[in-house]
Amino acid sequence: LQDKKYQMRNKIAAGNWKMNLTFAEAKTLNQSILDHQIPQDVKVILGSPFPYLAQLCELSKNNDKVFVAAQDCSAHGKGAYTGETAAQMLQSIGVDYVILGHSERRQYHKESDTLILEKIHQAQSQDLGVIYCCGEALEIREAGNHVAHVKSQLSESILKLDAAAISKIVIAYEPVWAIGTGKTASPEQAQEMHHEIRNTVAAQYGDEVANGISILYGGSVKPANAKEIFGQADVDGGLVGGASLKSEDFGEIIQSF
Ligand code: 13P
């Protein structure tokens, strides 16, 4: 299981449950995904609220296609940081991944790329996989600065890692204007940005590293649009919010590769 976390260039259907679901609902949803026929070459990641992680890890531990993610971790190792959760704590209960730099954390908790990079270091020091989120707000896209914006997010964070460390990162491109709005980036818009991201990684680390990285699209992914988006050359899967809360919808998305 541990090794599978870092396999090169996977097809990934990741759910981000955000701050939703009761414990009972989370267990039911988790079980229905475990019972789902997941295609051979697809990996599923469930991003659960903190209180449910230990139980979900226990439930999922014998399934080699379903992985559990936390939605954040502390930039600190341990100590007097009330309310924070250390990467080591997540590791100690069997969490596989942590989602870092989500736009909601950037927006509501003022997270900078510098802070996000510190969190990445913590997560990687505990052998957690990282799903690093980037993406532009609507004004930035309308001004035509979306590519430059995302590149600057990358250069302030994951492009500061060495080749071995960046090879273990899953990147999620989530245009902020498409999150929870029902507005999806067109397949062409997603492909354009994913291609730019991969080229940016290639320019610094070479083609082998860049071609090994999984880049997910996030923003109003649903059964009706998943296939077309996942079909783009540089789109390796999705990070799904709302539609990951319904087992039928998420089940269909898992089949959309
Ligand atoms: P929605 O799928 O609800 O738009 O959320 C996307 C997201 O933010 C996933 O992290």
The general outline is globular
Radius of gyration: 17 Å
In spatial order, strands of the major sheet run 1-2-3-4-5-6-7-8
Compute the separation of the termini in Å: 22 Å
Helix proportion range: 40-55%
Low-confidence stretches: none
| Binned strand content | 15-25%
- Structural class of the helix and strand makeup? alpha/beta
Largest sheet: 8 strands, parallel, barrel
Order of helices and strands: EHEHEHEHHEHHHEHHEHEH
- Bound compounds: 1,3-dihydroxyacetonephosphate
Number of strands: 8
Number of helices: 12
**Average pLDDT value?**
96
Structure commentary:
The chain has 257 residues and is of the alpha/beta class. It has twelve helices and eight strands. It has helices at 23-34, 53-60, 87-92, 103-108, 113-125, 138-142, 146-156, 163-166, 187-205, 207-212, 223-230, 247-254, and strands at residues 11-16, 42-47, 66-70, 97-100, 129-134, 169-173, 215-218, 237-240. It has an eight-stranded parallel β-barrel, surrounded by seven helices. Strand 2, helix 2 and strand 3 (66-70) form a beta-alpha-beta unit. Helix 1 packs parallel to helix 2 (53-60) and helix 7 runs parallel beside helix 9. The mean pLDDT is 96. 1,3-dihydroxyacetonephosphate is lined by residues 16, 102, 174, 179-180, 218-221, 239-243.
